[in-house]
Write a structure and sequence with these properties.
elongated, mainly alpha, 3 helices, 0% strand, 79% helix
Length: 99
Amino acid sequence: MFVLANFVEATARVVQIGLSIYMWVIVIRALLSWVNPDPYNPIVRALYTVTEPVLYRVRRLIPTGGMGIDLSPVIVIFVIFFLQSFLVKTLLQIASALR
C-alpha cells in the first residue's frame, strides 16, 4: 500500500506546483494588461495562449455589468487557492491514510 500512498502524495505535490505556476502566470498576465504590451512579442503571445481559455470561460459566466474592470483573473486565483486548500490537502490526507 505504501506504493499507492507515495503515488497519491507525488500527484498532490505535482498538482500543487502546477497550480502555483498557473497562478503566477495569471498574475503576470494581469500585470501586463496594465502596460499595453506588444501583442507580437512571443512571451506575451504564450501568456495569452495559456491563460485565455480559462479567463474566457470565467468572463462568459460572470459578466462585468458595464464596470469596465475584468475580474476574471481574481476569480481564477480564488479558484486556484480553493483547489490548493481542498484538492491538494485531500490528496495528502488520502496518502497519509494509505500508509
